[in-house]
Recover the amino acids of this structure.
């Protein structure tokens, strides 16, 4: 199980996030994830999706359902370009991701360094994550 601590400008509370992947076959898995708000002690997010990897195309496709207490039935879709720099410094990997959220029509950026991740978009929204 993957767990992380998350904080964002919109929630103003630390959240605990957990994710588990269950293999279906060598290229497909069921991914289940949830989030708990530490201020209120209530779940704020739940997601279940099936993800299929296409190694020849260096891509994956995921289809699923998500409930988020803060979002009211909004659709999501994105196109992303990811560039990884392995051993950026000794024992330090860096990943840059540039994306475009299709329904909101907003470009965004993700910078990931080992356990730390910073996400930001052109609307001024941001969040930070630390993987445990």
């Amino acid at each position: 199980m993957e767990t992380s601590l998350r904080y964002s400008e919109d929630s103003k509370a630390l959240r605990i996030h957990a994710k588990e992947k269950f293999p279906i076959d060598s290229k497909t898995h069921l991914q289940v994830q949830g989030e708990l708000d530490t201020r209120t002690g209530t779940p704020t997010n739940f997601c279940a999706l099936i993800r299929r990897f296409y190694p020849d195309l260096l891509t994956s496709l995921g289809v699923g359902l998500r409930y988020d207490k803060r979002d009211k039935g909004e659709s999501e879709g994105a196109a992303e370009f990811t560039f990884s720099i392995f051993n950026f410094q000794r024992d330090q990997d860096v990943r840059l991701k540039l994306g475009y959220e299709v329904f909101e029509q907003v470009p965004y950026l993700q910078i990931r360094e080992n356990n730390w991740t910073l996400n930001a978009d052109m609307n001024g929204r941001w969040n930070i994550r630390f993987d445990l």
About this structure: Residues 1-70 form one domain.
